[in-house]
Amino acid sequence: MKNAVKFATASAVALVLSVPTFAQDALTGVEGLDDRIDDITDAVNDNIERSDDDERYSTLGVAQGWKGSVALSASQDIGNSSSSDLSMAGRATLGVGDWSHSFGFAAEYLDSDDTNATTDLYGTYEGSRYFTPKLYAFGTARGELNEASENRIDAFAGVGLGYRVVNNPNHTWRVQAGPGMRYIKDQADVSTSEAGFIASSRYYYAITDTVSLTNDTDVLGSSTNTVATNDLGVNFKVSNKLTTRVSYRTEHNSDAGDLLKSTDSTLGLAVVMGF
């Protein structure tokens, strides 16, 4: 519950000194900054761990058996304004023999006095089936329901074949490509379907026990436009307490518009240090 009350300066100081520690954190803003620090720390750790996960580049791409996690958050504001916020997200992987599956989902619900209640849903799937140690078939799909976006529904599904050009424990490279279909429905319930193609490359090289290089490339094309992304990164494990990742990401849109550049580039640096 949030109550907006004005006090004189002396009264405000007395209030802060008299309330419990957790209430002081909320009043002084410490709690909010702590949450932001946690968000940044989690994002950096996830970036480093995902880029240095050799199982993602291995034959199946996921570990055998089930593995996953789910996160849930909820909040209710009452006072000068009223709002409810509910968020849930999760990932899961399943490896069974020559089959591998990867699932992801997220749901967000927001209801406030100022706006109408909105519900956003997101889902992803990636699967593969190996015929030989190097040749495999794959399927990928994603779906978005965003009631506040120009496109209320945006979905894509594709299938194809992949091949592992290099297939060593510390050095792997696979490429895959195939046709796909995109479906869009805007806020006026006008739907559009268009055929396209997808092409991807995943490269991983463990130079030493402490240094690894990754390069992820994806191309998604259709009659509307072609979007290509490339994410090149180097991970350094300087010690058990210091890990660094340097990355360079480029994204090219063949139909970015007259007022926008067709290519965006991002240079990233992530550092995690424990003491």
Quick rundown:
The protein is mainly beta and about 280 residues long. It has helices at about 10-20, 20-30, 30-50; strands at about 65-75, 85-95, 100-110, 120-130, 135-145, 150-170, 170-185, 190-205, 210-220, 225-240, 240-255, 265-275. The chain starts with 8 loop residues before the first helix and ends with a strand.
Task: Itemize the secondary structure elements and their pairings.
Layout: H1 9-18, H2 21-28, H3 30-51, E1 65-77, E2 83-96, E3 99-112, E4 118-130, E5 135-146, E6 151-168, E7 171-186, E8 191-206, E9 211-222, E10 226-239, E11 242-253, E12 263-273
Antiparallel strand pairs: 1-2, 2-3, 3-4, 4-5, 5-6, 6-7, 7-8, 8-9, 9-10, 10-11, 11-12
User: How many DSSP helices?
Assistant: 3
Q: What structural class do you assign from the helix and strand content?
A: mainly beta
Q: How many strands, what sense, and barrel or not for the largest sheet?
A: 12 strands, antiparallel
Count of beta strands: 12
The Cα radius of gyration reads: 23 Å
How would you sum up the global shape? globular
